[in-house]
């Protein structure tokens, strides 16, 4: 195992003359993300744990990133291939180049329906994708050709629930959460449009919906940056998309660097009482938390007050 890690780090060093080695990179603990009503607690140790059987599988994988021309991205994806953690890469946004071009051709809508929640901060946590309404049992499709990196039957009432994460040859990874049934397995090759699971309401979810994410080197990109979405259509805005650390990860970066202040809701609280306590207004609280004045405040949730 140690020998494998040394070989991988040696390859990365050869490809990254202008980058510091992994131990010196500032680690952003982006695995512990919350999807508003969906909370996912990931291992943020940065260590890839594999037994001898999984090492054999790892070394023989034909990863979809083989088709990428960017050797840096290929090296990171190869060394971070992991079937347990959503973000095993721990690659800081500030170190991402602004020149990587994603090939958006061949996209297939995972689901077409009404958007119920957008990417961004929600309830004092970060919602890393876009939520779309569906019915339990509706088909969910792979967005691009790729290889399944994670299939997980998570907790019924916590986190993503039943979810699938796929790595694609264009450099993106996509995540599909809250399924009622998973129809693919780890390391399986899939084509755009293949049915990978069925819609559901598993995980921390208030109703049947699909939580859909785009990620690049583990960092979430707002799906609206790439997609045009209406209740009747979903398509790529262009054939290519250039990753930009300033624009692609704006919502997530702002969340990580926000000086925001939060309040944990207690029994008997209401927006008016909280607003008075923090010398603000109900409308300001609603704007900060993307909620309405009639939204029910659940005990234990965090409310942003600054």
Counting DSSP H or I runs of 4 or more residues, the number of helices is 6
Look at the structure and give the mean pLDDT.
Answer: 78
Q: What is the straight-line distance between the termini?
A: 47 Å
Q: Give the overall shape.
A: globular
Low-confidence stretches: 1-61
Radius of gyration based on Cα positions: 20 Å
Share of helix among residues? Answer: 10-25%
Beta-strand fraction estimate? 25-35%
Largest sheet: 8 strands, antiparallel
Element-by-element helix/strand order: HEEHHEEEEEEEEEEEEEEEEEHEHHE
Please describe what this structure looks like.
The chain has helices at residues 2-15, 52-60, 71-79, 250-256, 271-277, 282-289; strands at 33-35, 38-40, 101-103, 115-117, 120-122, 125-127, 130-133, 139-141, 146-153, 162-167, 173-179, 181-182, 189-190, 195-198, 209-216, 219-221, 227-229, 234-236, 240-242, 262-264, 302-304. By secondary structure, the protein is an alpha+beta fold. The protein has six helices and 21 strands. A hairpin with a 5-residue loop joins β10 and β11 (173-179). The chain is globular. It is 18% helix and 26% strand.
Write the layout of secondary structure elements.
Elements: H1 2-15, E1 33-35, E2 38-40, H2 52-60, H3 71-79, E3 101-103, E4 115-117, E5 120-122, E6 125-127, E7 130-133, E8 139-141, E9 146-153, E10 162-167, E11 173-179, E12 181-182, E13 189-190, E14 195-198, E15 209-216, E16 219-221, E17 227-229, E18 234-236, E19 240-242, H4 250-256, E20 262-264, H5 271-277, H6 282-289, E21 302-304
Antiparallel strand pairs: 1-2, 3-19, 4-7, 5-6, 7-15, 8-14, 9-10, 9-13, 10-11, 11-15, 12-14, 15-16, 17-18, 20-21
Helix pairs in contact: 1-3
